[in-house]
Design goal:
The protein is an alpha/beta fold. It has a single domain, classed as Rossmann fold (3-Layer(aba) Sandwich). It contains nine helices and six strands. Strands 3-2-1-4-5-6 form a six-stranded parallel sheet, with helices on both faces. The model has no long low-confidence stretch (mean pLDDT 96).
């Protein structure tokens, strides 16, 4: 699996919504790490797609995550869905194309954060892999109800070909070199304190 290439990357933020956020494993860690991932995408100009699963029933995206998303000036899109996997929504591919500028599915590098690991995240990841995209799972940005559900979902996705990573590794791969114009800003962001468990 290749290192992340900032020109082919997209961040996919899946269903961090109301009622579910109250019951996931390690919610403070997940929220803080996902916000930092979004800020890194802003620094490096990486597009972001945010999805919501049946918001009328589950509620809106967590306000802190939504605020970090709304502040971004990179290409971005929002998708409401009823299908568990994002790829099951007929508009998903169009949204990816709009924000990523026509990068072919087989060349895409999709950096994933989301809940729940064993349902919406896993179905999305398995379908993206089947389409030929590379998938990089930020372990601290993926959660669900219960440690075992999360653990075994991550294992299954890795067995299928996804890469297990974290938001800091993602940022360093996008930068590649200390001389990158955004390296100092990234370093300052990462020094703000580790996300809490």
């Amino acid at each position: 699996m290749e290192l992340l290439d900032v020109r082919r990357s997209i961040v996919l933020v899946i269903d961090f919504q109301g009622k579910l956020m109250e019951i996931i494993e390690r919610p403070r860690l997940v929220i803080a790490a996902t916000i930092r991932l979004l800020k890194l995408s802003g620094l490096f100009g990486v597009p972001v797609v945010l999805t919501e699963q049946y918001p009328r029933g589950l509620g809106p995206t967590h306000p802190d995550i939504r605020a970090a998303f709304d502040e971004l000036t990179v290409p971005k899109g929002v998708l409401e869905k009823t299908s568990f996997g994002c790829c099951g929504n007929r508009h998903f591919e169009r949204v990816l194309e709009e924000v990523l500028g026509g990068v072919e599915p087989a060349r895409r590098q999709v950096v994933v954060a989301g809940i729940e690991a064993h349902v919406c995240v896993m179905q999305t990841v398995l379908e993206l892999l089947r389409q030929g995209s590379q998938v990089h799972l930020c372990w601290e940005c993926v959660s669900g109800r219960g440690a075992e559900y999360r653990l075994h979902a991550l294992e299954r996705m890795v067995q299928a070909g996804a890469v297990l990573t974290n938001h800091e590794s993602v940022g360093f791969e996008w930068a590649r070199d200390k001389g990158h114009p955004q390296f100092k800003a990234m370093s300052a962001l990462l020094r703000e304190g580790q996300p809490m468990a």
